[in-house]
Structures are given as C-alpha cells and as structure tokens.
From TrEMBL:
Belongs to the TRM44 family. PANTHER family: TRNA (URACIL-O(2)-)-METHYLTRANSFERASE-RELATED. The gene is TRMT44. Pfam families: AdoMet_MTase. This is tRNA (uracil-O(2)-)-methyltransferase. Residues 88-100 have a biased composition (Basic and acidic residues). A zinc finger (C3H1-type) spans 691-721. Residues 52-124 are annotated as: Disordered. One of its GO terms (biological process) is tRNA methylation. The keyword Methyltransferase applies.
Length: 736
C-alpha cells in the first residue's frame, strides 16, 4: 500500500465530512467531469453489506491473484454485467438519492450517508449479493492485506465491530475516437465506508469462461482523515508496484495525485449544489458516445465551408451533439414500443437548419421552419426540407401526423412547443432546449429570487408541459453551451378519452399567463382546435404540411383561431443594432467630438502631421463613459441608445482611435500596441498583410500631432497615395 498524494482541506463553513461525500458522489456518478477521456458512467446496482472480521485462514494469495467466485459464473452472465454491445436499462425514472446525509450518519444519525444515487437497472440485487459474498469469502479466507486496506486505519481500534458498507457496481465508459477506437467499458465495485471515511475502487475482470474476479493490481482508495482540527483527503494505491495504467479508465498515479486529488479537495468545500440532472441521464451513454463520434466524423467538414457569421465550430458540434442525443432517444423509443419506422419531426425555429439536415440524412422524415432564410440552406441539397415562414400559435399551426416537435433555441416559441405538440395529436411528443427567456407573449418575468433565472425558466417550461398533460423529463446535454438542459415530453398524464377536458385546462392555464380572468370550463373563451385522430409513432413519410399561407405569414389568421392575442413572432429581417448601420457622417462626428474632449485635457501641440515628433505626441487624458455622455448632445445620445451597447459600442467599433478599459475612454497609443505584439500564426500574418494600408489613418488626418508611428510601421495609409484596395477572400464551394 502506498499513499500517492494527500491534500489538506480547510473547512471554514463546517462542510466536512458531508462535503467529502458530495465530492465522492461526483467522481462516482460523473467521472468525466474530472477525466475528460471518459464519456460517462453507468451505475448498475447497489447493496448494503458488511466486511468480514479479520481472522486466521488459508494461505494468503499473491497480490496479483484475482479474488472472486472462481469457477462459479454467478453474476457474470445474463443481465448482471453486460458487454458494450448489449442493451442498457432505461434511466427515465431514476431518482437521485444522493443526499447530504453523510454528516448526519457520522454524527450518529440514520440514513444512507454518503451513498451516491443509483438509477433503476436490470441488474438483479441477488446477483450483486452473490458477487459480494464470493469476494467477501475470499477476503476472509486468504487475503488479509486487502481486508485491512478496505477496513481502513480506524478498524484497528474496533477489531470486532463489522463495518457497514455500501457497495455499488458501475461501468466506466471511455470516449471513442480516432485515438482510442477500440476502448471498451470497464466494470468495478465501489465500496463506501461512511464511518471510516473511505471509498475503495475494485476493478473487475471477466475471463473467457465468464468468470468474474476482482483484480488487485488497480485497486485504489480515497480517504478522509482528521488530525487535530485539520482535515486531509488522501489517495492510496493497494499495490503500487503492479499498477497498470491504460491512460483512460486507469490514469497514471501522477494524475491521481495532481488532478483528481485537487478536484476532490475543491469539490469538498464547495457548498453550492447543482440544481440540474446528471449529463445524459435518460439515454445510453455507450450508444451516445459511438453515435456522436460517427456524426462528428461525417459532418466535420461543415466547419470548413460555414457561410454564416456565427462560430462554425460551436454551432456545428453543438448540433451534432443534439442530433446524436435525439437519434439515441428515438432509437430507444422504437425498441421500447416495438416500432420499426423512424420517427418524423418538425423543428420550429430551425435557424441554420443543420440539425434538420443531420436528422434527415440519418433517415428521419422531417423539416424545419424559421422566419428567416439562412445562406447555408442552399448547401444542404433537396433532401433537407427547410421552409421560411413565421409561426403564430393558432389552429393553423398544428401537426397531427408528426411524431416529435423540436424547439432548439426556439426563443419566443419555446413555451408554445408543448402546447402545439399537445394539441396536434395525442401521439405527438416534444423536445425543447430553452435558451432565451420568453413567456407566451413577450419576455419572461422573474418571480423567485431564490433561484437563478435559468433554473426558474426551466421550471416554468416544465410547468407548461405538465399543464398540457405531459410527463416532463429533464436531461443535461453534452454541448458547448451554458444553456444545455433539455425538457422532453414523451407520454401523457391522461388517457385519450380525456382530451377535451384536458384542453380546457390548457386554455385556462394559457389565459392565466396574461392575467386575464379564467373562464369556467363550460365558458372557455378560446375555441378548441380541431382534433386529429390519436397519433402513433413512426410515420415513414407523408406527414401533414403546414398551410403555406400561415407559414409565410401571407394569410391572415382570424381572431377566433388564435390561442392568445399579443403573441409577436420575430421580424423576418434581423435588425442590426451594433452601431454598424448608423450613417458614416454621424459616426465620424461622434468620433471627432470624443477625441476633442480627450485631447483638450492637456495642452495641444500645433505641429503638422508630417513633422510631428513622437516624444511630443499628445495622447490626451481619459474620461469615464458617463462623463463623455454628459458632454454629448441629447439627440446624439438618444440615437445611440437605440443601438445595442450605445456609446460604448460605437467607441469600441472605432478601436483604431479609442481604447475603452474598465469604463474609461482613452486615445489609443499605437506604440504600446507595437511593443505588446505577439508572434502570430501564418494564417493570422497573412490576414494582417492583406488588410495592410486598406484604410486611412485617422491620426494622420485628424490628430494635431499626426500619427505616432512612421508611415512604414503604421498599418493604415498615410495619405491617398498609400491606400490599397481591400481583398475579398474567396470561399470554397462546398461539396455535400
């Protein structure tokens, strides 16, 4: 046994030992948070057990010899321990039993202290009992060293007292990719001893005959200890001389010491709890990992030909991850319902349409609708159906033959997606990924200061789904975004016969969001939409098309067809409000005004631009944004306030002239820029050379002392003779 690392933990908020068990729960349930080479973990089963008392027994085993059932197959077959290609149990109804009961247990209370939550599984508890019993007998009979390692240092003071343990069987799932295409899941037993403050990880190996045993070569332990008033977290390895690192599931001991230990120490004293589900809790992580890698390889070239102004890597890989999630979700739904045809879908507010393109290419019939056409739509080809049009929630915007409605960052349509799905057909389901906060009409107004705005808005959309009659499930996606929680409505809380009464409740709820008086069920003011027959999943083709006039906004929707007046879809033409569309003469006037304000702070030099000396160059003073705004005319300020960012945005846009740092405005000194310049990549240098001398130097034209840099060093033109025409880069023509 060897201690590979120890970290002292300060506990100003008296968070230990409860915080230690919360940190252990993260490493147990979400190891990918610390180890980026892991895709996730699947928790199979758990039991409460007891360690055997130390006693004399048969010959000790060698450290490398396996411990376990030997020739009995026990839990090694069937549903107990599954291989990577076998089906995974559904986690839809998992309950998170991870609680802060560890501190209460240590203090003498009751409850499953420190136990990590385990989802429902097909792994029979009796099989885990059989596996543990065989392992326990081998400990009692011939491996006192490992028994002492599991018992911890506190066992010596109470040798006769059996320790109460929680044993969890888990499967670690590595990421698949070009560097590790053959990585397979690894299974291990996790033994949590709350009273002694230890958690031990025992790797399991299965031979060709299906026999499972514990391999002692990679056994390690996380331990919490206290010396006087100081707490320590340690990581120990049972047989350091036999430790075998694969670089993925079992890292180097140095990684355990330098990375994992530091994270555990930090997590132990963080009192802030996450209000969200574990990542990818509703689908098979193994299937997701393989599907994501496949889609990433298939669509990675989209990054090279992205024609939009948005960040291609973020949007491409985010939509690839969402598509992978939906494909696995729908695959498991087909297996659960015994369906063969792939689900149809409509993406409301589809944006760049890449998600629609991927799902359609992978065989799901569907289309996307957005109020504004994007350049990239022309790149997808005829097999990707994208429509330009506004959606106004009404009787004309129903999709009775569609299986799933998708709201991926659908903004003002987000709370309406569950409503449209519920009223389209009984079999229509929904998936929403909320981003911006909208109510049924207008922006969402916060009502609870105890929650974050994001958490409160997610609860609101969940409430809408429940009011519409859905069982709403929540999951956390693995995407490069801070807003990555999705809400899913797969089934209803009422039978098909209760559709009429349920829709009356929906109408009451929708009207209540406007603060209007709620009508009795018999006097509903908004007529019920026409009903389609009870839907079913898996339409291979031929779903109903949205009325063209309604989709494009050319046809008027009667007042009695609207579900709620006041809804305003976004404008077709996206208004640019970054000061870029302001008249050039107006911008130049403001720049001159602000520059004169700054230069008047010191005595001005009268030298000409051609004979200026860099030593006497007047940089001027600095003013706060509020002081600058106070000096500008009222009409100018009003015009700037109509732009996003206003005065600050205009000054930042003119970065050749100004610097805005910590709310204060300065004249830019290009000598400092030259001193701070870092070596650029070849692509960056080429871009800079193409832009060299393509714009006039403001300082050469307007500053009383001219430009602080000589002509050959200034990136801007000193006079019309130096101007070069700007070069427009040519884009590759995409081949899809």
């Amino acid at each position: 046994m060897a201690e590979v690392g120890r970290a002292a933990v300060r506990d100003p908020g008296a968070l230990l030992p409860g915080g230690f068990w919360a940190a252990v729960a993260v490493w147990l349930e979400r190891p990918q948070v610390a180890n980026k080479r892991l895709c996730g973990v699947r928790l199979e089963a758990r039991r409460s057990v007891a360690l055997p008392r130390a006693a004399a027994g048969p010959r000790p085993r060698s450290p490398g010899e396996g411990l376990g059932p030997g020739q009995t197959t026990g839990p090694a077959r069937g549903t107990a321990i599954r291989g990577p290609g076998e089906s995974q149990p559904r986690h839809g109804q998992r309950e998170n039993r991870r609680e802060a009961a560890a501190a209460a247990r240590v203090a003498g209370g009751s409850g499953p202290a420190g136990e990590a939550g385990v989802g429902e599984s097909e792994f029979p508890a009796s099989d885990l009992d059989s596996l543990w019993d065989a392992f326990s007998q081998s400990l009692d009979g011939g491996h006192p060293e490992l028994l002492a390692f599991l018992s911890g240092p506190a066992a010596a003071s109470q040798p006769e007292a059996p320790s109460e343990l929680a044993v969890v069987l888990r499967t670690l799932i590595p990421k698949t990719g070009p560097r590790c295409p053959l990585a397979v899941p690894r299974r291990e037993l996790v033994v949590q001893d709350v009273l002694n403050g230890t958690v031990t990880f025992l790797p399991l190996e299965e031979d060709d005959g299906g026999n499972v045993k514990v391999e002692t070569s990679n056994v390690y332990q996380i331990r919490l200890s206290q010396s006087q008033e100081e707490w320590f977290i340690s990581i120990l390895i049972f047989c350091p001389e036999r430790w075998h690192s694969d670089g993925i599931v079992y890292p180097q001991p140095a990684w355990l010491r330098e990375e994992l230990l530091a994270r555990l120490a930090r997590w132990s004293v963080e009192s802030k709890k996450s209000g969200f589900k574990s990542t990818l809790s509703l689908i098979s992580i193994i299937k997701y990992s393989k599907t994501y890698q496949m889609l990433k390889e298939k669509y990675k070239d989209m990054v090279k030909v992205w024609p939009e102004v948005t960040d291609p890597e973020k949007f491409v890989y985010e939509d690839v991850a969402i598509a992978a999630y939906l494909l696995i979700l729908w695959e498991e739904e087909r297996a659960e319902l015994g369906l063969t045809a792939k689900q149809s879908f409509i993406d409301l507010g589809c944006g760049n349409g890449l998600l629609v393109h991927i799902l359609s290419t992978e065989g799901h019939p569907g289309r996307g609708i957005d109020v504004r056409r994007r350049k990239i739509w022309d790149m997808y080809g005829p097999q990707t159906c994208l429509e330009e049009g506004a959606i106004t929630p009404s009787d004309k915007t129903l999709f009775p033959d569609v299986d799933w409605l998708i709201g991926n960052h659908s903004d003002e349509l987000t709370p309406w997606v569950p409503v449209i799905a519920a009223r389209s057909s009984y079999g229509c389901r929904f998936f929403v990924l909320p981003c911006c906060f909208f109510d049924f009409t207008g922006k969402y107004s916060r009502r609870q200061s105890r929650k974050t705005q994001y958490r409160e808005y997610l609860d609101f959309v969940t409430e809408v789904g429940l009011a519409c009659g859905f069982h709403v499930e929540e999951d956390c996606l693995r995407i490069p975004s801070t807003k990555r929680v999705c809400l899913i409505g797969k089934s209803r809380t009422y039978p098909p016969a209760g559709e009429v009464s349920m829709d009356e409740q929906r109408t009451q709820y929708i009207n209540s969001r406007r603060g209007r008086p709620v009508s009795p069920p018999s006097e509903v003011s908004v007529p019920l939409p026409p009903r389609a027959t009870v839907g079913h999943a898996g339409h291979p083709d031929g779903h109903q098309t949205l009325d063209t006039g309604a989709a494009t906004g050319r046809a008027e929707i009667r007042a009695d067809q609207l579900w709620l007046s006041g809804f305003q879809p976004r404008e077709k033409a996206e208004r640019v409000r970054n000061c870029a569309t302001l008249p050039r003469d107006f911008i130049d006037q403001v720049v001159l005004q602000v520059a004169h304000l700054l230069l008047n702070g010191e005595q001005l030099n009268t030298g000409s631009a051609s004979s200026s000396s860099s030593k006497a160059w007047n940089r001027g003073g600095s003013l706060s944004l509020a002081e600058v705004a106070h000096e500008l005319a009222g009409e100018t300020l009003q015009r700037l306030k109509r732009e996003c960012g206003g005065l600050q945005t205009l000054l930042r846009n003119n970065h050749q002239v100004f610097e805005v740092v910590n709310g204060r405005v300065h004249i830019r000194d290009w000598r400092e820029k030259k001193l701070q310049r870092q070596p650029h990549s070849e692509a960056k240098r080429r871009l800079c050379s193409e832009a060299f001398k393509t714009r006039m130097c403001w300082f050469y034209s307007h500053h009383p002392d001219g430009c602080v840099l000589p002509s050959d060093s200034c990136p801007f033109a000193h006079g019309p003779a130096e101007l070069r025409p700007p070069q427009t880069p040519k884009r590759k023509k995409p081949v899809l």
